[in-house]
Design a protein that fits this description.
Elements lengths: L2 H16 L3 H14 L4 H13 L4 H12 L7 H14 L3 H13 L7 H8 L8 E4 L4 E4 L10 E4 L2 E2 L9 H4 L6 E2 L2 H14 L6 E3 L12 H10 L3 E6 L7 H7 L3 E6 L4 H7 L5 H17 L5 E8 L7 H11 L2 E6 L5 H9 L7 H5 L4 H9 L9 H4 L1 E4 L5 E2 L23 H10 L1 H8 L10
Parallel strand pairs: 3-6, 3-11, 6-7, 7-8, 8-9, 9-10
Antiparallel strand pairs: 1-2, 4-5, 11-12
Length: 446
């Protein structure tokens, strides 16, 4: 085959790669490599295509491309940066770390190196390996996916104004209701500070609840800032009467969760919610930010369902209009015990909301089974403590189960040390059930 034909294949493959036509691009690059197995550009681009779909054979192709690049056509700095970013997006942090070492050994530097390094290296507040006596095995830890700091998810409200079908408040019976008062919150925050004299943890003022329902929320934010800690709020923004006071208190981060701009869809995925109220409150949120010169990072968290993914551009444009960020993510079924029940369901009958999920719990568990060695710890227990509105502790932020393994018994944050709380987490029977079914939060390493 002529060099001209080879160049035509490469050109077409590159255009497909640029347009994200991945299957066509992969086919064309493989055709190129059948003609010339040492074509560096084809090796590299095919390698990154494989890595994007979590196929680690791509690593070797990228390494081969470097060896075959005799004309130095590949910018190794940008190439290694891209490979690290792809691995991190797939939660292959150990593989990202190997490429970080490659960059250091070869003295490759690029603008994002320090930030990528921060996302890869294990934070000082974490032990790298922990031994689990009940399982008689050691587990590795890693730089957490959710937060670089230790997280305390403090549910300042028990309850919510909505009944979302993928949330326990919408799909679990008898969820507790109540409001955390200022005295209890102050005691909890004081204990957090005392137990973390050097490390500065991240305080999330929500878990399953709507934090704007708590009239004391602005004061809680101010207390956290006074303690030199960071705060994070997630809201459905169907409530407007505290927006100004909350933004004046200047939380570090504020996420608004929506699914659709169409009420007939939004009213299902955010049951009892009104999307026009949310849009009106976007305006109030932006005005409060500007009038108080707030430094709060605000973004729209777009829950992607099969019937909402076509609104990505529209919702991103809306976010840009108000100067908000835009972060889409696939909707998942919560809590973990609900996902586990669906995993074990044998009747095959799906609810309307299950049919709209891109990834059913069964699909998620099956897809990741072959990519986990079983030697990595779950970060929902090693890097987070979930505290309920009454000061009791949940096993983790993904379940409604109490930290105590005894039915009906609660464990309270103020009555137990950090080491006692961690010990109870690792003894809980539900952790084994969750991990055995690949429902826990951990990285991929195979």
């Amino acid at each position: 085959m002529s060099a001209q034909t080879l160049n035509q294949l490469l050109s077409e493959a590159s255009e497909c790669y640029r347009l994200n036509l991945t299957e066509k691009a992969e086919s064309l690059y493989r055709a190129v490599l059948q003609i010339n197995p040492n074509q560096a550009g084809a090796l590299f681009n095919l390698g990154t295509l494989l890595l994007r779909r979590a196929d680690l054979q791509g690593d070797q192709l990228v390494k081969d491309s470097f060896r075959q690049d005799l004309a130095n056509e590949i910018d190794q700095k940008k190439a290694v940066e891209l490979v690290i970013q792809i691995h991190l997006s797939n939660t292959y942090k150990k593989h990202a770390q190997q490429w970080l070492r490659y960059a250091e050994l070869n003295k490759l530097t690029f603008p994002t190196l320090s930030e990528l390094k921060r996302q890869i290296e294990i934070p000082a507040h974490l032990e790298k390996i922990i031994y689990i006596p009940t399982e008689k095995k050691s587990l590795e830890r890693y730089h957490p996916i959710e937060s670089s700091s230790y997280v305390y998810a403090v549910d300042v409200v028990g309850g919510c104004n909505l009944r979302c079908p993928t949330c326990p408040i919408g799909n679990q019976k008898e969820m507790p209701k109540g409001i955390m008062g200022p005295e209890l919150f102050s005691k909890i925050l004081k204990k957090i500070c005392e137990e973390n004299p050097v490390h500065k943890p991240d305080i999330w003022l929500f878990n399953w609840s709507e934090p704007l329902l708590n009239q004391h929320l602005p004061d809680f934010i101010k207390e956290i800032r006074k303690a030199n800690l960071t705060s994070f709020i997630s809201s459905n923004l169907n409530i407007s009467n505290r927006i100004d006071a909350v933004i004046e208190a200047n939380p570090d981060r504020f996420k608004v969760s929506i699914s659709s701009l169409q009420q007939e869809i939004y009213g299902v995925t955010h049951d009892r919610g009104d999307i026009q109220t949310v849009i009106q409150n976007f305006e109030k949120l932006a005005q409060a930010r500007d009038s108080h010169q707030s430094t709060t990072e605000i973004w729209i968290g777009h829950h992607l369902y099969k019937n909402t993914i076509n609104e990505m551009d529209q919702i991103k444009a809306l976010a840009n209009h108000y100067g908000f960020g835009y972060r889409p993510s696939y909707a998942i079924m919560a809590p973990i015990e609900k996902a586990h029940a669906l995993l074990k369901s044998i009747n095959g009958i799906e609810s309307d909301i299950e049919e709209q999920l891109f990834f059913h719990p069964k699909t998620i568990a099956e897809n990741i089974k072959s990519r986990r060695s079983g030697s990595m710890d779950c970060e929902l227990r090693f890097n987070m403590t979930a505290i309920n509105y009454d000061g009791s502790i949940s096993l983790c932020c993904g379940t409604t189960k109490n930290l105590s393994d005894e039915i009906g018994k609660k464990t309270y944050f103020l009555e137990n040390s950090a080491s006692e709380i961690e010990s109870l987490k690792y003894k809980h029977s539900f952790c084994s059930t969750c991990i055995e079914n690949n429902l826990h939060l951990t990285i991929q390493d195979l």
